[in-house]
């Protein structure tokens, strides 16, 4: 069971502990090449002459290659070669050919380490550049929402997949409208720039429709038409297979105790109460994702439920529920969050993101978009 922090200080403490744990491993790894050289010398000195330190000395520059700069890797390689020559001199020339073979082995491996270092550094630079562009594009598509809207506390998070720097089509948006606070979380089929283009269309259509349409059903219809129109106009988007799973939610103006949900093939939102209770909000009738109106037609229907004072509503994409651990078990937010208490929507989303990272031992294999709103406690 996950426990939420009592205030924002709890978030800072969790991040500090995580940074501290990761900071312990980095110095140990960076000292490993030196430890291999020192350990090789000790091994060579205390063991019989037929045993050699060459494996230790060869491993040192290889370990340094992905960790160090080119200059530091070259220094490690030079130290390994010089150490091998000094050890050969120390033992004398009883077996010249063996000593020469060991020295040549260390030299060859050292040169390989320099080549590996160059490849790793160039790959890191390219990946960092792509990630910077991806993050900039994602921020442009999904700007950070304000902390409060019409009295509701709001928070959003976007976590990119660990598998690479490709931009995903996960999206979230929330805004205060004449009809209440309306929000959407969705997942566009596909990856890359085509998915981002589709996400831009969905978010743009939502922001316009949320202001103009009087019902969530009408908002969903506008999104449906926008996706179909965009699919017919863009050759990069497959009109027959392009779709977006989405969940729309609304807290009506003047009545924050009411919550309306319209789900189009998306993971069900969660409602968390201040006493640690948790309730899933599945749709009363299943519906296909947005963009598949030609496959089947049906009247959209928004389900209405009670929104208790102090309760948290969390919407999220399937990057959360499809995150797997090493045994292949899916992440279950209901089981992990039930019984927990949170100080606000930001605390809730931080806990979920960190818990998914622990579950997967590093991060999700798919992008995650999360949005949470909290109704204030009544005075």
From TrEMBL:
Key word Hydrolase present: yes
Q: Name the InterPro entries on file.
A: Bact_Sigma-Reg, PPM-type-like_dom_sf, PPM-type_phosphatase-like_dom
Give the SMART domains listed for this entry.
Answer: PP2C_SIG (SM00331)
Highest taxon in the source lineage: Bacteria
Q: List, alphabetically, the Pfam families matched.
A: SpoIIE
Positions of the PPM-type phosphatase domain? 149-375
Alphabetical UniProt keywords: Hydrolase
The answer, when asked if Hydrolase is one of the entry's keywords, is yes
Spell out the protein name for this chain.
PP2C family protein-serine/threonine phosphatase
Organism of derivation: Streptomyces lunalinharesii
Taxon lineage: Bacteria, Bacillati, Actinomycetota, Actinomycetes, Kitasatosporales
């Amino acid at each position: 069971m996950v426990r939420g922090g009592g205030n924002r200080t709890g978030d800072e403490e969790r991040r500090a502990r995580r940074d501290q744990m990761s900071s312990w491993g980095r110095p140990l790894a960076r000292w490993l090449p030196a430890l291999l050289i020192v350990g090789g010398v000790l091994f060579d000195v205390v063991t019989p002459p037929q045993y050699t330190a060459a494996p230790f000395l060869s491993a040192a520059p290889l370990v340094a290659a992905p960790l160090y700069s080119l200059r530091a890797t070259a220094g490690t390689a030079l130290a390994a070669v010089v150490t091998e020559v000094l050890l050969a001199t120390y033992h004398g020339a009883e077996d010249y050919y063996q000593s020469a073979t060991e020295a040549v082995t260390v030299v060859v491996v050292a040169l390989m380490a320099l080549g590996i270092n160059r490849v790793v550094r160039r790959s890191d630079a390219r990946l960092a550049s792509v990630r910077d562009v991806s993050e900039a594009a994602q921020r442009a598509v999904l700007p950070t929402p304000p902390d409060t809207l019409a009295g509701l506390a709001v928070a959003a998070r976007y976590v990119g997949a660990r598998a690479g720097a490709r931009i995903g089509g996960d999206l979230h948006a929330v805004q205060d409208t004449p009809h209440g606070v309306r929000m959407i979380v969705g997942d566009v089929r596909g990856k890359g720039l085509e998915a981002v283009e589709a996400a831009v269309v969905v978010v743009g259509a939502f922001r316009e429709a949320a202001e103009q349409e009087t019902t969530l059903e009408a908002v969903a219809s506008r999104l449906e038409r926008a996706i179909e129109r965009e699919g017919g106009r863009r050759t990069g988007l497959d009109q027959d297979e392009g779709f977006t799973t989405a969940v729309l939610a609304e807290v009506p103006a003047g009545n924050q105790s009411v919550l309306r949900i319209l789900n189009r093939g998306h993971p069900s939102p969660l409602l968390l109460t201040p006493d640690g209770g948790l309730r899933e909000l599945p749709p009363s009738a299943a519906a296909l994702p947005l963009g598949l109106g030609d496959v089947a037609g049906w009247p959209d229907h928004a389900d209405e439920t009670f929104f208790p004072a102090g309760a948290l509503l969390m919407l999220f994409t399937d990057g959360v529920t499809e995150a797997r651990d090493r045994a292949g078990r899916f992440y279950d937010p209901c089981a992990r969050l039930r019984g927990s208490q949170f100080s606000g929507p930001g605390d809730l989303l931080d806990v979920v993101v960190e818990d998914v990272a622990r579950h997967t031992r590093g991060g999700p294999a798919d992008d995650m978009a999360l949005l949470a709103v909290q109704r204030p406690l009544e005075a």
